[in-house]
Amino acid sequence: MADPSRLGRDNVAIVVPALNEALRIREVVEGALAQAARVILVDDGSDDGTVDRIADLPVTVLRHARRMGKGAALRAGFAEAARQGALAVLTMDGDGQHDAADIPRLIAAANRHPGCVIVGARLRKRAAQPLHRRIGNDFGDWGLGWACGFRVVDSQSGQRLYPRAVFTLPDVPGEGFVFEAQMLVSAARSGARVVAVPIETRYAAADAPLAFRKSHFRLVRDLWAITSHVARQVLEPGDLLARYARTRRQPPVIDDVAGDPLPPLAPEGAGTTGGRH
Predict the structure, then answer these.
(1) How confident is the prediction along the chain (277 residues), in pLDDT tens digits per residue?
(2) Alpha-carbon span 84 to 39, nearest angstrom
(3) 174: phi > 0 → left, psi -120 to 50 → alpha, else beta; which?
(4) In terms of Cα–Cα distance, which of 267, 20, 76, 224 is closest to 136?
């Protein structure tokens, strides 16, 4: 008899927050549909015909009359996934930077690590990531690890799998990109660990085979918003030095069944455990 708690294409909902994604949204949604039976697109006030591009596809579409931010879009998608009875939610951005072919790997990792948040960590071909984004990500990993109580890898990745116990957590604060950072902190404080699954970095470049729209992430504005929010999460419990020391002793969990060589992490993020399954 099949295990009803085992995740697969019929009980994982893919949630796609979308803001002006007409360029690649059809490819994204078709890729998601090839991997899962439930796809929920949350249109966050687009004015470029994003929804029109996928009007004939069998997906659930939620629409915001005005732009409310990524946090609000994800909350709406999570609520709909819970209503539909999904056992997990897998998020991916609507701009095409996440490869739907990685979805089975994230689901398989979730089955190996029940109850954990699975992050598609952009560790392969990491040199393609703009230097300023890489520095920002390393800094974000350092601060979020402190808030979570264990080190994390690519905490800014939007391709994640949240088990039901996490995506249904009530009253998770934070708006915009801050919400995704807070989801990791809230998950950790609820007892869930974060597991990284290496994926390839896909960014716009002059010689790249794929075209992407300009990122909605604004490095200075959004990184400041995330940093100030996470700083409060770090400071509130007190006992800073002891918690920092405990965090540094908890290396990131990297589940890499492919076993391919990975680039070195930032010095503070070096070390893995639970990987090479």
Answers:
(1) 678 889 999 999 999 999 999 999 999 999 999 999 999 999 999 999 999 999 999 999 999 999 999 999 999 999 999 999 999 999 999 999 899 999 999 999 999 999 999 999 988 766 556 655 666 677 778 888 989 999 999 998 999 999 999 999 999 998 888 999 999 999 999 999 999 999 987 655 545 556 665 666 555 566 667 777 777 877 777 788 888 898 889 999 999 876 655 555 554 433 344 444 4
(2) 11
(3) left
(4) 224
Q: What does the alpha-carbon distance between residue 121 and residue 198 come to, in Å, rounded to a whole number?
A: 5
Q: How far apart are CA 251 and CA 153, in angstroms?
A: 10
What are the structural domain ranges in the chain? Answer: 12-269
**E-assigned strand segments in 12-159:** 12-18, 38-44, 60-64, 88-91, 117-124
At a CB cut-off of 8 Å and minimum separation 6, what does 173 contact?
179, 182
Cα(225)–Cα(239) distance, integer angstroms: 24
Top-level class of domain 12-269: alpha beta
Cα-to-chain-centroid distance, residue 29 = 17
Integer Rg of the chain from CA: 18
**What is the distance, to the nearest Å, from the Cα of residue 227 to the centroid of all Cα atoms in its chain?**
17
Letter for the amino acid at 86?
A: A
- CA distances 235 to 150, 231, 251, 263, Å, are 16, 6, 21, 32
| Kind and range of the H or E run holding 134 | helix 131-148
Q: Which DSSP symbol is given to 197?
A: E
Q: Could you give the CA distance from residue 162 to residue 225 in angstroms, rounded to a whole number? A: 23
